[in-house]
Amino acid sequence: MIKHILFDLDDTLYPASAGLMQEISQRMSEYMVTRLGVPADDVDRQRKDYWARYGTTLRGLYIERQIDAQAYLDFVHAVRVEKYLQPDSPLDAMLARLPQHKSVFTNSPAEYARRVLRALGVEKHFAAFFDINFLAYASKPNPSAYDRVLAALPARADECLMIDDTARNLAPAKKLGMTTVWLDGAGNRYGAEGREYADFVIATIYDVARIL
Ligand SMILES: [Mg+2]
Q1: pLDDT per residue over 19-46, tens digit each?
Q2: How far is the CA of 189 from the centre of ligand 1 (A)?
Q3: How far is the CA of 94 from the centre of ligand 1 (A)?
Q4: What is the pLDDT of residues 46-76, one digit of tens each?
């Protein structure tokens, strides 16, 4: 029986089409150019390389260039989220109907995650925030992130369901025995890599209730 739901935040609890992640992604590139002196025409290549080898741009910059991770996170998330997000009453209603405990499991900082959930009007549904600081910068899909989260939850892996728009983030959850859901939303930035680890595939976050 599923007792706990782990929700990814970005491009999962709101759609990729909102445009919020585009601005954050631009700010990641801007940080590399203006703060680290990376040539503008090489940023995309370096970020793809970090994505493949380390999972995220932050993880790559942290390991290879020893950046101040907190300064980076502050810079890239200094975005007015209300510009992109509005209260989502169907999401609010669906979350209210689901009896399971709910947490956010995100590679973003909790301070930003709270602002996002507040803008969506759904903050009250979430009991815990497993954010990049909780993960000690070992972001998804690093297996240690999942071990940390599971150790903090009052649930076994087989009682957890995890939802993420980045399919490869589901692999470690699946290996631990969680039920996994890939949100294959329009505008998915990462393609289908890892989709074989998804027990279910949904097109919008509103389909979660149907699975449960
Ligand atoms: Mg996401």
Answers
A1: 999 999 999 999 999 999 999 999 999 9
A2: 9
A3: 19
A4: 999 999 999 899 999 999 999 999 999 999 9
Half-sphere exposure of 103 (CA within 13 A, CB side): 20
Compute the distance from residue 165 Cα to the ligand 1 centre, in Å.
Answer: 5
> Same domain for 10 and 105?
yes
**Per-position b or e across 173-198, b if 16+ CB within 10 A of its CB:** bbebebbbbbbbbeeeeeeeebeebb
185 alpha carbon – ligand 1 mean position (Å) = 10
- Domain extent at residue 66: 20-76
**Dist CA 165 CA 146 (whole Å):** 16
| 9 Cα to the center of ligand 1, angstroms | 6
Total count of domains within the chain: 2
CA of 154 to the centre of ligand 1 (A): 24
How much is the pLDDT for 205? 97
pLDDT tens by residue, 71-129: 999 999 999 999 999 999 999 999 999 999 999 999 999 999 999 999 999 999 999 99
Indicate if 55 and 32 belong to the same structural domain.
yes
Residue 187 has pLDDT above 90, yes or no: no
What's the rounded Cα separation, in Å, for the pair 166 and 185? 10
Give the Å distance between the CA of 42 and the centre of ligand 1.
24
Whether 71 and 93 map to the same domain: the answer is no
